Amino acid sequence: MSMDASTTAEMDLESLAQQVDQALAQVMKLDGPARAAALDLKRAIEAFHKLGLTQIVQRLKADPRGKELLFELVDEPSVYALFAMHGIVRADVATQAARVLEMVRPYMRSHGGDVELVRVEGDTAFVRLHGACNGCSLSAVTLRESVQEALTTHVPQIQRVEVVPDDPVSGLILPEEIAVDGAGMDAGWLQGPPVEAVEPGVPYRMDTEDTSILIVNLDNQFYAYRNQCAHQGLPLDGGMLDVESCVLTCPWHGFRFDVTTGECLTAPQAQLEPFPLRIQEGRIWVRPG
């Protein structure tokens, strides 16, 4: 079966992005002077490209016909990625907030805590805190204040941060936070595989009569999503999962997703649909939407 032009372009985008990452990784291995010279060259080329791209965008926006064409171009993943890389377009507020939380996550985890973005409404970000972030101790308060300061400083649209209860509605649950409800489960929960059946870094597919579910184990943190790529709805269970970067690559058209948030890194306006997940007596349970 032949691939159309858009499919080829998407695969080329993924391939080119990998080549850039690999080349940059090699540059970072050079000695001091050589690395500095290579990075200076990289910055100079990027500045040259940004100047030209900015002029093109400004001219297109000044003409009604060009403005319409520009909006169509931005919907193309490779063009969006290029504009975003040079700061010509900015990700939506939720995507910006998720990226900021990724910045503070290492600090949070080093103090026994973690943070999860639930949603953004207006000027308010709703987050869920885990581990040492909960409670009234000085360290817990400090961690919560760090989250608020990071979000309000780096995302100007966010003015307030609200903490939502740490209950099992997240797509993530840690094994050390296993919850046993007793005799029964809440309505809508489906019994999934044993914990040990979901190998770290290997996407696991769970099918029901009307839903295909993707379960992922990243360093003993479990995530569940509808098994559909946000691009064309094709299944993701055959995709490649990079454990270090937490990125799942769609096997069909190369779209890349952050498994910890469901965010599409190729086209940030897209998102995987998360499902609540919990663990009871060593078995995974999922509640499809």
Structural topology:
Blueprint: H1 5-28, H2 32-61, H3 64-74, H4 77-85, H5 93-110, E1 113-121, E2 124-131, H6 138-154, E3 160-164, E4 172-173, E5 190-194, E6 204-207, E7 212-218, E8 221-226, E9 240-242, E10 247-249, E11 256-258, E12 277-280, E13 283-286
Parallel strand pairs: 2-3
Antiparallel strand pairs: 1-2, 4-8, 5-13, 6-7, 7-8, 9-10, 10-11, 12-13
Overall number of strands: 13
What is the count of distinct domains?
A: 3
Rg (C-alpha, Å):
21 Å
Q: What is the H/E string?
A: HHHHHEEHEEEEEEEEEEE
Distance between the termini: 34 Å
Helicity, as a percent range: 25-40%
Instruction: Identify the overall geometry.
Output: globular
Q: What's the overall average pLDDT, rounded?
A: 78
What does this protein structure show overall?
The protein has 289 residues and is an alpha+beta fold. The chain has helices at 5-28, 32-61, 64-74, 77-85, 93-110, 138-154, and strands spanning 113-121, 124-131, 160-164, 172-173, 190-194, 204-207, 212-218, 221-226, 240-242, 247-249, 256-258, 277-280, 283-286. It has three domains: 7-85, no CATH class; 93-164, Fe-S cluster assembly (FSCA) (GMP Synthetase, Chain A, domain 3), CATH 3.30.300.130; 172-286, Rieske Iron-sulfur Protein. A four-stranded antiparallel beta sheet has the order 4-8-7-6, with no helix packed on it. A three-stranded mixed beta sheet has the order 1-2-3. The protein is globular and about 60 Å long. Residues 5-10 and 167-185 have low confidence and may be disordered.
